[in-house]
Amino acid sequence: MGTKDKRPTSTSDPAVAAGDKAVANAKASTPPSSAAGGASEVQDFIAKMKSVAPAASGVPGRLIFAMDATMSRQPTWDLALSLQSDMFAVVKDIGGLDVQLVFFRGMNECRASRWVSDPGELARLMTTVSCRGGLTQLGRVLTHAAEETAKRRVNAVVFVGDAMEEDIDGVCAKAGELGLRGVPVFLFQEGFNPNVTRAYEEIARLTKGATCRFDAGSAAQLRALLRAVAVYASGGRKALLALGNRAGEEGAKLLLSQMGKGE
C-alpha cells in the first residue's frame, strides 16, 4: 500500500511559516522489531555514535530535526518542543548550526521548514504545529533528507517518534541511501513497542546512527545527548572535546568516553 513519490512543492499552509514546503511521498506499511531498555540504551546510543565521521569544519553544520506529529504524540509534544531549544546554544562558538524542522501528520501531510540558525525561530516554527491523527511517514522524511544532502551536506538527522506503520523494506532502502551519503540518523523512540524498536535499530544500523528511548523520565539525559549530537554535527570531535570540558555537559562527556582518542 505505497503512494507514488513526488518532488517537494511550495506551500502556504498556515500550520507552518512561509517558505515551508511539502516533503516527497514515499512507500508505506507495517514492520517487525525488538525492545531494549533503560540506561543501557543511552550507553548504546553513545557508543554507536563513534562510527559517525566528524563534520567538516569551516561552514555551519546542518541538522534535520524530524518529528512524528500524529495524534499519539500529543501527550509529550510540549516536552519534545523544549528538548530542541538547547541545540543551538552550545554551537554558536563553533561556527553555528542550521536546523530544518520536518514533521508529518494526518493522512498524507509531511512538511519541511526553511533552514534556520536561530533557536527562537525554530521554537516558533515548532509551536505552529499541532498533532493530527494519521499514519507514520518516516520514508518521506528519509527521502527528503537525501534530497537535501544532495544540494548541500546534511551532517545528521534527528527523529522523534513512537510508531512505524510503513513497509520496513522500503524505508530501509531509503535509509541505505542516506547511509551511502554519510548521513547518520539518530532516532529517539517514545514508548516500548518492540516492533518500532527493531525498525529504528535497523534504520540506525544502515545509516551508522543510533537509537535511544524517549520519555518524560529521561528528558534531562536526552537533552544532553541532543546537545552533543548538535555540537558533533556542527564541529566534529574537536568541538565535542571543547564542550566536554564545560561543567555540566554530561552528554558530551558520555559521548567522548565512547569515541576513542584522536580524530
Give the secondary structure arrangement, pairings included.
Layout: E1 9-10, E2 21-22, H1 38-48, E3 61-68, H2 77-83, E4 97-105, E5 109-112, H3 119-127, H4 138-151, E6 156-161, H5 168-180, E7 185-190, H6 194-207, E8 210-214, H7 219-244, H8 250-259
Parallel strand pairs: 3-4, 3-6, 6-7, 7-8
Antiparallel strand pairs: 1-2, 2-5, 4-5
Helix pairs in contact: 1-8, 4-5, 5-6, 7-8
Query: Any idea what the CATH architecture is?
Result: 3-Layer(aba) Sandwich
CATH topology: Rossmann fold
Strand order across the largest sheet? 1-2-5-4-3-6-7-8
Mean pLDDT across residues: 75
Structural notes for this entry:
- With 263 residues, this protein is an alpha/beta fold.
- The protein has one domain: Rossmann fold.
- The chain is built from eight helices and eight strands.
- It has an eight-stranded mixed sheet with strand order 1-2-5-4-3-6-7-8, sandwiched between helices.
- α4 runs parallel beside α5 and α5 packs parallel to α6.
- The N terminus and C terminus are likely disordered.
